Amino acid sequence: MFTRQAYRAFQPLKQPIRRYATAPSTGSSNNTLYALAAAGLGVGGGGYYYYTRPSPKSAKPESVAPPSTLEQKNIPSNPSPSASAPQQATNKAFTGSDQGFISLKLDTVEKINHNTKRFRFSLPNSDDVSGLQIASALLTKYKGPDTEKAVIRPYTPVSDEGEKGYIDLVVKRYEGGPMSSHLHDMVPGQRLEFKGPIPKYPWAPNKHNHIALIAGGTGITPMYQLARAIFSNPDDKTKVTLLFGNLTEEDILLKPEFEHLENTYPNRFRAFYLLDKPPEGWQQGSGHITKELLKTVLPEPKEENLKVFVCGPPGLYKAISGAKKSPQEQGELTGMLKELGYGADQVYKF
Fold first, then answer.
1. Which of 118, 108, 226 is nearest to 172 (CA)?
2. Which helix (H) or strand (E) segment is 214 a member of?
3. Residue 16 and residue 14: Cα distance in Å, rounded?
4. Residue 266: CB partners within 8 Å, gap ≥ 6?
5. 78-123 pLDDT, tens per residue?
6. Torsion of the alpha carbons at 216, 290, 227 and 110, rounded to the nearest 10
7. Helix (H) or strand (E) holding 241
8. Alpha carbon distance 18, 21 (integer Å)
9. Where do the H-state alpha helices sit in 69-135?
10. What are 266-281's pLDDT values in tens digits?
């Protein structure tokens, strides 16, 4: 079933939101609250109202753990193409682990908000595509003049895999984050080393009937990659639910892109937002995530062929699904998803 049998129409919005917003925090700081809240939203109703409301007219660590040596070695030398990856392009900038790191020139920098920028890097040739599949990421490498070892971090480009000549990264600057700080200090004309692709969850059209994306902060980028691939393929009829948590409204990354998807595919895509510090008149969620919230927004565990994806800061994983055991191993499913009856085979941790 696409919607739950029992639901309430999404009408009395403000009162249920206040109920979640006034729930006491178990932490002593906003950072603690955000770690717990970064993937849900305080919306009301006693059941799953996903398609009952009207369509609508980002010292902290890096948000993604550094890749292990094993993860770097496991980049396939000949990545198998995803069914949703571009099929016509033949010139791929990134071809696998035997290629090594390649240097790309920073072309443009766009400020998104107070701590987030979009970086466009030129591929080696103007007719190159990235070579990424759905879902996959790239490694970045930088060694400063005063550092003993190079810093390596994975990032998921937000540009389409079929775009020629460039890739776009959206990066939030974290205090004490060496790679994000370096990127934010870069100016056009400078270069950064990249390697990949790093395969994540292999996607094919209609692999699942319905997917739920639970993200916090810059954990949204692999979710956007997956959602974009689904809705750009007319043969893919997968339904998508997004839960995205942030500190403030300004921190909601890629919101115009998700609004476009929601306006274009109102019967198949819904995005829900949770803010730790909502502005006056905010019409979605505030506060921290609860099991009641997940029951309200997510499709039920018994729904046929369902997959739930999780990506965000460590606190999000701990509360929602449990951490990954290693870059290659999902680890035990714990947290609220397990308590709500979701199985390990229904959850994927980016």
1. 118
2. strand 210-216
3. 6
4. 55
5. 444 444 444 454 699 999 878 999 999 999 999 999 999 999 999 9
6. -20
7. strand 239-246
8. 5
9. 69-73
10. 999 999 999 999 999 9
Q: What is the dihedral of CA 123, 128, 134, 135, to 10 degrees?
A: -20
DSSP-derived 3-state class of residue 79: coil
Residues 6+ apart with CB under 8 A from 245: 34, 37, 38, 39, 40, 41, 215, 216, 217, 273, 274, 275, 276, 289, 312, 316
Amino acid at 350: F
Going by their DSSP bridges, the two strands 306-311 and 347-349 should be labelled as parallel
pLDDT digits (tens, 9 = 90+) for 26-80: 333 333 333 333 333 333 333 343 443 444 443 444 444 455 444 454 454 444 4
Q: Which residues contact 288 (CB under 8 A, 6 or more apart)?
A: 23, 25, 26, 33, 36, 37, 40
Q: Which residues contact 230 (CB under 8 A, 6 or more apart)?
A: 84, 203, 205, 211, 236, 238, 240
**Phi/psi at 151 (5° precision):** -95, 130
pTM over 0.70: yes
Q: How many CB atoms lie within 10 A of CB 263?
A: 12
Q: Which pair of tokens denotes residue 116? A: 């987030």
- CA–CA dist 133, 114 (Å, integer): 31
- Give the CA-trace dihedral at 13, 14, 15, 19, to 10 degrees: 100
C-alpha dihedral (139, 165, 115, 280), degrees to nearest 10: -120
Find the Cα–Cα–Cα–Cα dihedral 162, 347, 215, 53, rounded to 10°: 90
What DSSP designation does 129 have? B
